[in-house]
Design a protein that fits this description.
single chain, 332 residues, alpha/beta, Rossmann fold, 2 domains, five-stranded parallel β-sheet, 9 strands, TOR1A_C, ATP binding, nucleus, nucleotide-binding, ATP-binding
């Protein structure tokens, strides 16, 4: 019997209906040959697509590029890498493995925000879509003594949902708080297999979000600043090797000695740089626009001035990125 969603994890508010998913899975292509279940994942039905998506691949790419450039501040590396990775993956009709991205940086630098943009780009309802699945380590995997249970649940959840939608998206937040070993349960799904137990995972996307490596990213950014070089001069090759090794050797990264790194199954380690004063001001203006308010530069400056910055001597980078901008703006 094909193990649909055995021991499923609970939904995290994306409107998942377990019974509906099971009905979908039973009705959408399961075939039995000589007693063996073989599942061909269907294409996802995401409803009417926005005009920019109907415009074709170039239109989708342009829309994603524009949204990242207009809404993500101070992250030239993340913008470039995510755009190229997603575009290349979606243009490939026969990928050899799922796309796996690991996003690293301090809180408030844009990791969660980017994952929302990516989710909306891939499925019109974004995080509310039944095809986008968000896991939060402290919520879904809290107990160290239950690692084996979490591994079994995670495999069942991913297997069942990729069976229902080949291009499912799985987002793992707070990877730095995930108990070591939990994430290795999904290793077979990320590898270069055509099928695992009759299901192909090659069109799925996995995104990891982590604060781990934030110190390494900041050190390199600070070295560039102290050398009088622009942050835009920082290239992926300056950070990616340091990140992958640092996260692999960090017991608090969720990827400590992980087979995902050891087997080179993570396609990109994407650094999110610490945000400067000017970027915080950009965040304040963006929040004002989102609220339909006129841009008041006095308020922009006051909100930015209320933030704390580090290192103590130079005060270059915001301690919390743009994370508290919304709440601080409420006071003005």
């Amino acid at each position: 019997q094909f193990p649909f969603l055995q021991g499923c994890l609970p939904s995290t508010g994306q409107g998942a209906d377990l019974k509906a998913r099971r009905r979908t899975q039973r009705a959408s292509g399961l075939t039995v040959s000589q007693g063996t279940a073989v599942f061909v994942p269907p294409q996802c039905s995401v409803g009417p697509e926005p005009p920019q998506r109907r415009a074709g691949v170039s239109g989708r790419q342009a829309a994603l590029k524009l949204e990242l450039e207009e809404k993500l501040f101070g992250q030239h590396l993340a913008t470039e890498v995510i755009l190229k990775a997603l575009t290349g993956f979606k243009n490939n009709k026969n990928p050899k493995k799922p796309l796996t991205l690991s996003l690293h940086g301090w809180a408030g630098t844009g990791k969660n925000f980017v994952s929302q943009i990516v989710a909306e780009h891939l499925h019109s309802k974004g995080l509310r879509s039944n095809f986008v699945h968000l896991f939060v380590s402290t919520l879904h995997f809290p107990h160290e003594q239950q690692i084996k249970l979490y591994q079994d649940q995670l495999q069942g959840w991913i297997r069942g949902n990729v069976s229902a939608c080949a291009s499912s998206v799985f987002i793992f937040d707070e990877m730095d708080k995930l108990h070591p070993g939990v994430i290795d349960a999904i290793k077979p799904f990320l590898d270069y297999y055509e099928q695992v137990d009759g299901v192909s995972y090659r069109k799925a996307i996995f995104i990891f979000l982590s604060n781990a490596g934030g110190d390494l990213i900041t050190k390199i950014a600070l070295d560039f600043w102290r050398a009088g070089r622009k942050r835009e001069d920082i290239q992926l090759k300056d950070l990616e090797p340091v990140l992958s090794v640092g996260v692999f050797n960090n017991k608090h990264s969720g990827l400590w000695h992980s087979g995902l790194i050891d087997r080179n199954l993570i396609d990109y380690f994407i650094p999110f740089l610490p945000l400067e004063y000017r970027h915080v001001k950009m965040c304040v203006r963006a929040e004002m626009r989102a609220r339909g308010s006129a841009i008041d530069e006095d308020i922009v400056t006051r909100v930015a001035d209320e933030m704390t910055f580090f290192p103590k001597s130079e005060k270059i980078y915001s301690d919390k990125g743009c994370k508290t901008v919304q709440s601080r703006l409420d006071f003005h």
